[in-house]
Design brief:
Blueprint (H helix, E strand, L loop, with lengths): L1 E2 L22 H10 L1 E5 L4 E3 L7 E15 L5 E7 L4 E2 L1 H6 L6 E14 H10 L1 H27 L2 H16 L13 H8 L3 H13 L3 E4 L2 E4 L2 H7 L5
Antiparallel strand pairs: 1-2, 2-7, 3-7, 4-5, 4-6, 4-7, 8-9
Helix pairs in contact: 5-6, 5-8, 6-7
């Protein structure tokens, strides 16, 4: 972690209009800007550990953070990725419970820490902000429910195809249809909930079937229609 010489200003932040903070008044933004602290975090840094006490939450200004739980034998189960504009750690703060997952920097990140008192003050004063936060919580709960259903009912092949589309929706494709996030085979396995060897085999099968191209960690989507059919995803 490194202190920033230039602190991102909330009212100048490019992500403000696309976040729940867009519901804040000018005075609330000024107060938030005064209360927060921002730092640069290198790839591999742990922001907080599962089971630790949280006294605030984080907003991602730049970079990518992966959120995961640790299971048997130290195996990771990746829950989701937080990117520019996302907030993390707020649910444990609201519930008063210990952190339910670990947050680890996947790509160098600039993150702002906002104390819990600031969040609770906004919730008491700004009903629109409160509703927006409730909706965000419900969306994340819905995604978690869908994931549980997929784990129970879909094959590993189907889940891998679906994960490729989830990554596409969250991070986008470049002009060559390459996913704009680089993950190891182990990380892909930790999203899907399977062995790394299974992911390696299935990616090879997708490549042989001309569904994707592989270049190291980069994945290019060649036949999205066929992948969507494999994933049993419907419009």
């Amino acid at each position: 972690m490194k202190n920033l010489t230039t602190i991102p200003e909330c009212d100048d932040c490019l992500i403000l209009s696309n976040s729940l903070f867009s519901q804040l008044t000018n005075d609330e933004i000024i107060n938030l800007n005064f209360d927060k602290g921002c730092n640069f975090h290198k790839k591999g840094n742990i922001i907080y550990h599962e089971g630790s006490r949280v006294n605030g939450f984080y907003c991602v200004n730049k970079g990518i953070v992966k959120l995961y739980k640790t299971g048997l034998e130290g195996r990771e189960q990746i829950i989701r990725f937080a990117k520019k504009g996302d907030i993390i750690g707020y649910r444990s703060l609201l519930s008063g419970e210990l952190a339910c997952h670990t947050a680890k920097v996947l790509e160098d990140a600039t993150m702002c820490f906002i104390p819990g008192e600031s969040l609770f003050a906004l919730l008491r004063k700004n009903s629109e902000f409160t509703i927006e936060l409730l909706q965000l919580t419900c969306r994340e709960l819905g995604e978690a429910n869908s994931f549980i259903t997929d784990i129970a009912q879909k094959t590993v092949r189907e889940r891998l195809a679906e994960v490729l589309f989830i990554l596409k929706d969250n991070f986008g494709l470049d002009v060559d249809n390459v996913l704009q996030i680089s993950l190891t085979r182990e990380e892909l396995a930790n999203i899907i909930g399977t062995a790394t060897e299974s992911v390696i085999r299935l990616l090879s099968e997708f490549k042989d079937d001309k569904l994707i191209e592989l270049s190291g960690r980069k994945i290019k989507l060649l036949d999205q229609k066929a992948l969507k059919k494999i994933a049993n995803m419907y419009e």
